[in-house]
Fold this sequence. Notes:
Layout: H1 3-17, E1 28-30, H2 35-48, H3 54-57, H4 79-89, H5 92-119, H6 122-133, H7 136-139, H8 145-148, H9 152-165, H10 169-185, H11 187-205, H12 211-242, H13 248-253, H14 288-299, H15 307-327, E2 333-334, E3 337-338, H16 345-348, H17 364-380, H18 385-403, E4 410-412, E5 425-429, H19 435-441, E6 448-449, H20 461-469, H21 473-479, E7 485-490, H22 498-504, E8 509-515, E9 518-523, E10 543-546, E11 565-567, E12 574-592, E13 604-609, E14 616-621, H23 624-633, E15 639-656, E16 665-667, E17 669-673
Parallel strand pairs: 5-6, 5-7
Antiparallel strand pairs: 1-4, 2-3, 7-9, 8-9, 10-12, 11-16, 12-15, 12-17, 13-14, 13-15
Helix pairs in contact: 1-5, 2-4, 2-5, 2-19, 4-5, 5-6, 5-9, 5-17, 6-17, 6-18, 9-10, 9-11, 10-11, 10-12, 14-17, 14-18, 15-17, 20-23
Amino acid sequence: MSIVLAAAALIVITCVYTWPLLPYANSAVAHDRGDPLLVTWILWWTSHTMPLTAAWWNAPAFHPSAGVLAFSENLLGLAPIAVPINALTGSPLLAYNAAFLLSYVFSGLGAYLLAFVLTRCHGASFVAAIAFAFAPYRLSHTQHLQLLSSYWMPVAIAALHLFAAEPKWRWAALFAVSWLLQALACGYYLFFLSILAVLWLAWFALGRLSLRQAIRLGTAWSLAVVALAPVLLGYRSIHAAYGFRRSPVEVVNYSADIAGLLAASPDSLLWSGLRFAEGAESEIFPGLTIVALLIAGLAVWRIPGRHESKGALFFYAGSAVLMWTLALGPAPKLSGVGLGVPGPYALLAHLPGFDGMRVPARLWMVSVLGLAVAAAFVVARIESRRVRRAVVAAASLGMLLDAWPRAFPVVAAPGTRITTAGARVRLGLPLHESETETMFGAIPQAKRVVNGYSGYHAPQHAALRYLLEHHDPRILERLAATEPIEVIVETAGDRDGAWNAYVQRHAGIRRTDSGPDWTGYELRASGAVAPAEIRGTAVRIAGIVTTANMPHINAVLDGDLDTRWHSQPQRGGETLTVDLDRPQHVAAVVLCLGAYAGQFPRRLQVEVSSDGVTWTAVYRGGTALETYDAAVRSPREVPITLPIQRDGVRFLRLRQTGVEPRTGWTIVELRVIG
């Protein structure tokens, strides 16, 4: 079987595997309307705007936030596919689905190339192609195009093998370009492929490459790093401005479970009942066929072939095991129960960039590549051509059955919303239920949207959602403070008409457009800008006592936005009493939320006293709008500022009086302004 026949077979298998997506490529997406529509929107934006410019980074979601593209993957590695299709057809969905379908074909061809470089056997290479392109793991991630787009990884490693055999510039360049494109297709693979490449160098190149050859390879790789640098620096700058980072709890929660080796996608034809671990990230069942094939290969007492081939087999089998152990994260668990010992991933967490990796489980894709190549070695060592062909056929069929879906999940894409309103900014309601739908629906008119969906959320988004879900009219006024906004109410999320009624009650609203499943309005500019920031001299705080979590209260005075005091959950009655040492003028109290912008006090009462006995209330009410204003003004600190403007104040008492069982109250820094 030649690579041309292999490519044809992969195309056919992909079309059948993903059916009925192909005939609906211009109107549907795989799995759901979340990540697929987000990726569609990102690919459209890259087609619409020059990459790496300020306009490109300031993608039109989470209005009025800046740097929104850095909230998620940039997907520049998919631009060579998406940009021409978007330009020729004007269909972002078609561009997305083309990249989606080709991810299977290209992943298969990449694995085929790597296996052929190592074995020079077309049949064995086809087995590797099927094992990598149609691994059961991919069925759990049909909504994650960036994860499926793993095809440059095997090409990069194949280039390293070619360079080792013939240390020419072309192979060094192929490795560097493949590494760069893989990094631009998926941020996770920037780190995962780099780990694999370093391991490859330690195994195959250490002591074998001459200094001149090593410099040649290093120069090519360094040039690729330089080309990637503007992207990395952009992410670093924007993430620092927002204080974005992944918490250790997130990393543990998104690590694979050991029992995940016996957990498959619920969409699997044969293995949907295999559920020894919960969560898509732990669905790392490798498939019965590839396991049986590898066991059969290992059972052979003496494997024919050269010592070098044995070394390569051990490397890929070993790397699969190593990457699996890393995928278990910093605190391995079995069936959801922690083992109480740190995992090897805990060492990686100290390296630059790994603190932003939320999902260690995705290292399993590198394991899948290692298993695929190891399977190719086993097949290639079958001496009888007739037997080898039979094994290729049986193994390919078995692997496809292990990965085959019961019914490939395809959902209709939402309609676009082309309106006559002149407003440049759009709000889609209900907010939470129509985040990606609003982003997608605004594409034809390239409107900025208040809605947003991404790897990180804009700091103001939690408060925005709270205010809208409570039908607070003040947030509409604030959104339209300086210019008109357009409001689209989706009928599917407004069965009782409450959202339309909420919008229609607002002064200055007019109905502009409608469709069978939506209604459009335009709200004129309100002039209701956020209050001016209260400035003054910081007042020294002598001490703070609290009724909740007293051991952590000093965190609010340490000047560190990464430490915090918190109460969990908000039951009502949580109280902080602040001592200013002596009576003095207090203009305002500032509660900084930092990275915990959703954990604002639902209702707050602020009282002041000169002696700690007689108290006067100076503020009663919610803080959601104040949180929204603070997050827009200062997204790193999110400083909720409550005016006091009283003389003779020595004590401040802050009492949380709301109830929110799902969310605690956090303060990262507390300041008093005199």
